[in-house]
Structures
1.
Amino acid sequence: MSEKKIILRNIFSSLIEKIVSTIYGIIIPILIIKQYGSEVNGLVSSITQFISYIVLLEFGIGPVVKYAFFKPLINKNANEVNKVLGATDRFFKRIAGIFIIYLILLCVIYPHIIDGFNYWYTVSLIIIIGVSRLFEYFLGMTYSLFLQADQKNYVIDYTTTVAYILSIILILILLKLNFSIQIVKLIGSLAYIIRPIVLKIYFKHKYKYKILKKDNYKLPQQWDALFHHIAATVQSNVDVVVLTIFNTLSNVSIYYVYSLITNGLRTIILSLTNGIDAFFGKVLINDSEESVKNKFEIYTFFFYTITTIILSSSIVLIIPFISVYTKGITDANYINEIFAYVMIFAEYTFVIRYPFSDLTFAKGHFKQTKNFSIVEPIVNIILSIIFVIKFGLVGVALGTLISMAIRTIGFIVYASKNILNVKVSNSFKIIIISYIEMIIIFIVHILIGNVNVINYFEWIKLGLIVFIIISIFIITVNCLLLKNTSKKIFNILKIKKK
């Protein structure tokens, strides 16, 4: 199968999985809020974020493992592949042990941080959420990362999609029967055990590689990558932790509802990059420097165009959606326009780093970029604590926005100078254009004001109109201001047509 077909297949499967996971993320929390209240939803959200400090290890070690697989897979070196599989498996077993210790400490400490809930009520939720995550991430992670490196992302995506659908069905049934939140989270999360089991069966059936149990091979730069992971997970969870300690669980619930939307948008955008790191991992090994530059230039044109369209549209659509989504909820005020807009710009500042961070990790430059990665969470922690006292929800979002810019700029500058060998100003050109487009749309939206909608049907109609208008504006501006890149794309399309 050609590289183009592989990428398109992975993008399509990822888009399906991201749509289903976004639907899951939108439906389940609002049902929990309506059934158990904002305080319980805030508690569940807070526990989930605390557990994520360990669980999100995939984002730290994942790029290292995939980078270690690229060359032996291209060269069909089975012995080397077996060594990487063995080292990965051993690494995740160690982390699983650390995770269990962390879970015990969380059970001892966390219930004393929050108020309003029985000790054992809180501990039971920690164990249920933690154990289900342990199964989901650690039992199948080795196989998952191997398949990603081999550009078989579609296998993971379709398996995850089925797990999400099964989980939604089980949770809906349990909520209808008025079961406790503990039973809902336990039974609903059991669906995720399917994922590691299916991936293991697929790997055993499809490949002849083995996991070497006893071998001295170590993953290159694994601790440098872990350093990146620690910085990234602290950054991802600072806001909820700060709100849990210095604010209220109701505000945690409000934050979580907005983050569901921004995370949903992020997952849809990331579906466009599914398998791209593996693709560039091979390109960096096989292709010339000029070829890498051309492919990256075309990829970033598409990425930033689509990303700007999606997040610019969300500026206009987020408050109307929240008003419909939280209709009838009276125990907390979920409408906060300033907070919504800061969250959108923070998310945009985060996702624009992906082409450059993916390229950096595909090249295997973990050690070289680890120092500036720690600055991001440190700045976020300091600013969030200072701002939350004065500005509440908006304060933590501002801290996140400012800190995210630091690491994003770091990746863009590093990848431009050390991998692409291009002027930094050339890399920033499309990003600056995209930001100006976002600001123009934001100003026009503020002048017009939010459109009131009373149901999802009206919101979908509004969304289609907004999406079409913004798409025409951004595509036209990008084609006019980035003529060289757009010409390359049109020439490729002409050749393909012939």
Note: The radius of gyration is 23 Å.
2.
Amino acid sequence: MSEARFLKNAFASYYARGFDLAREPKHIDRREFGFTTFGEKLVIRHRRFSKWSELRDFVNSLAPADIMCSTAIYERPDEPMERKGWLGAELVFDIDADHVGTDCLSQHTSWFCPSCGESGWGLGIAKCPACGGKVEEIKWFCENCLEAAKQETIKLLDFLENDFGFSESEILLCFSGHRGFHVHVLSDEVMSLDQQSRKEIVDYLLGVGLDFKALGFAPRGKPPMLTSGGWRGRVARRIYDLLFEKAREDERISPILEKWSDEMPVSAVLEVLGREYWKLLERAKEEVATHVDSVVTTDLHRIMRLPGTLHGKTGLLAKVISPSEIDSFDPFVEAVVLPKSVVSVSVKAPIPEIRLWNEAYGPFERGQRVDAPKALGVLLIAKGAAKLVE
């Protein structure tokens, strides 16, 4: 059996029993659906389904690698883009570990050369050191980078709920199935926002053009309070935490913290830190900002993974999560839905330790044969790091 057939069978078996975990979008008959397939890796776009049962039947017959759905609604979703007739789009955000910039990425990126079979660890390896051929890079994910993506998502939810006033019922949150999270704002109020308006929302989340003096962080003006809302409160609270850490090395700071009430003593902090104060403000802004993929949010015609479906490169579920439960969400347990039945694979590229169901597997080296649970076997094969052993 080929790897493509193995993956397709695994996905087909899952969707035959687990498609009900997928989330039906509002106005399904006005959405564009897209799919990718295993093996030939076809991209199927501009599909329309009048009802949920039609989509389910199509998925069961195709067993696709990925099921994508437009964030926009159209008059004619099955027509080419210029004739679709755009009616509006959800406000969506994509937070990925790549955008967060964790230090661990370089430590768990492997590669292999299809020409000579050489493999190794390293980020940004373009050519095989053995034969000079083009290598294939495999980016893995670990608890550290997924936790970083989770914390960025928590910051985003805070902005959406407390600064923009969206309720939890208007927010659809899901694990991407790979290295991050997707957030959909489903409120009717956002559907008509144009590209510029969505860019301004992203700029607000990033703190672009933030004026510290206008917000009260200069000696003149009303100082921010720790309980202030919006950017004033976020920066003030982060400044307090940074100064608390700094007080261990600078005895001048402790008296300021001891006398600090809710209102920030801007003049006293500036007197102690001097020019460093303005650098500390920039650092605080950077740390409380939410780093989303601006291209995704500003794209009025974006198609994204249908929540509650499998990711074609991992076999993990793009699981829908309640915003109030994201703190406790563990993708290495809750997003693993394929079975534990054993499959044998041969490793093509180095694989780091991977945790599934609170069990650790690996690390594995090139040429090693592994008898793995099917969920792990699908992950390794879909990532291109292993091949099936008959």
Note: The longest strand covers residues 91-96.
3.
Amino acid sequence: MRSEQRQPSETGRVITFRQRSSGPLQNSASGNESAAKFDTSTVADLQKYQRAREEEDYRHRMVVNGLALAFCIVLAVAGVWLVNEIAEMKRIQDCVLSGRAGCIPLDLPPHRGG
């Protein structure tokens, strides 16, 4: 091989990122309106939704968690029931399509001769 055909191995490049300042954007459009619009940070906007630690209602939270658990249990039981019903319907359908008789047991009262 010639030395011109060999390519140097790439080692990669590390790029450092600067942290953004909480002030207005540097590349924003000119005018006081755009500077005022970007002056407030998003963290300050979220503070109006934050509640104090004393205001948390643990009893309400536990009731809601209990209701969510009960709903999940009902959903799981319904799923198991549905799977069993579909499996039983498939078994009966396979029996009928294979031409066999008596696939579905019928509970009939005994016939009285008269």
Note: Residues 32-97 form one domain.
4.
Amino acid sequence: MKQKTQLRWQQPLRKWVNAPLFERTIIALILINALILGLETDDTLVANFGTWFELGHHLILGAFIIEACLKICAVAPRLKQYFGDGWNLFDFSVIVLSLLPATGELAMIARLARLLRVLRLISALPELRLIVATLMRSIPSMGNIMLLMSIIFYIYAIAGYHLFHTNDPQHWGSLGLSLLSLFRIVTLEDWTDLMYTAMEAEPWAWIYFVSFVIMGTFVIINLFIAVVLENLAQSKAEQQAKRQQPVTHDELLKELVNTQQALASLRKQVEKMP
């Protein structure tokens, strides 16, 4: 009986915290918090409205605490459903850090915790959660691509040192400088200046630079994109599978009762027919 009473108030609460209006309200509070943090970078505004900014921080923090309490109550006593979700755990950690006093040695941590509240926008929007989940699951595959890219960088850096350090020691005078120059080339930021300087001493130097651009930029970056797109498709498939959850026992009983009531009503109408 106690469990049924618990379910009676938990089900409406669960629907309420998962309602679009509730989520939009939290998103609006996160955006207001981000706006206040941006306004606090202006000393004149802080001098005139600093008290109001501080009040806004406290009110928003209070709203986030209420949100966390409501979500925990909605799944109690099965707290694993709340803390087992990484996004809920992140939101709860941000709230705990925000409770630190904004004075003394912990002042900087408290200010950074306020800034972390803006990151809650990621957990509040399903589309952003999907993108972050895709990036996280892409990390193992990206590790192999990074290893391949490191080998290519290392080979080209040593070759660049031996080929161009005499003519252009500013960019190729050591292994470290050669790696930095290659990073500049792979970003396609004024890489032709390095090429033309090298071609003054070695006319065939363009082969070195063009081949590295093709290998480092076009091939490697496209491999990164391919990995992300593949994992994005897998994340979308998993998200759709979660949405298609099996019907619970309570929902099945409720549907059965509704069907029985509809059949009883239909039987009465049939009996009244001449």
Note: The chain has two domains: 2-124, 130-251.
